[in-house]
Give the backbone structure.
Amino acid sequence: MTTEERDKLVVELEDQSEDITQEFGYLYACTRKCLENGEITAVELKDFFEGCGLGELADKIDSTDSVSDVMRKVNRGGYWTFFNYKLLESIINKYCRINETLCELMTAYAAKFRDYCKRRVYEVPADVIKCATISSVNPASVLCLKLDETFKLSDSLIKVKKLQNKIEKLLNIEHLYLVDVKDGCIEITFRYFKEFKEVFPLCEHQIGELTQIGVEKLQCDSYAVSLKDNSGKTIIS
């Protein structure tokens, strides 16, 4: 590939990334407007988030908040992004089913997201995935995974999304949020919103399953599991 062709590809990829993030922003805005025009209350949304296992988010919501206040807290708190839209989709499915236009927007976005995820990890601009607020969150809510050689930056985002889904099921975390992907030996960082003690320490079954899906090391705050050392043994510290 010539320099000119590479530069053209970079611009194209950046434009596509900006496009999908803007579409997600529009989807969020339409959802907020739908809720504002309905009869849903802040207390109902608080209970909904609590039921989703997002107690940290629920605790931030006051009974005097408007629906707009609640949605802004969710949005600014990083509880959803273009890559992690499941919570927004759940809200639409529960409270906005009567709004056919919004439901069609959600369906169209999900389809476009799947198409976007066909691109390789290295083709996604770093600032698109990286969460700007990650440095300010509790270290006990940040999960770092070092992956083995079966994962490469030439893999598609679909593989990252599938890994995210597997980790959610394995650790019983309903909402896991991708916040960063690092080069080299691939390290993927997720953020979760459960109490540390509800997730850790891991049992032997969970550790074995992590090994099976390609995780070499897991770290969350002071808790770390090295799934492979020079002797092939598992180390828990």
Notes: DSSP finds ten helices and six strands in the chain. Residues 23 and 109 are 7 Å apart (CA to CA).
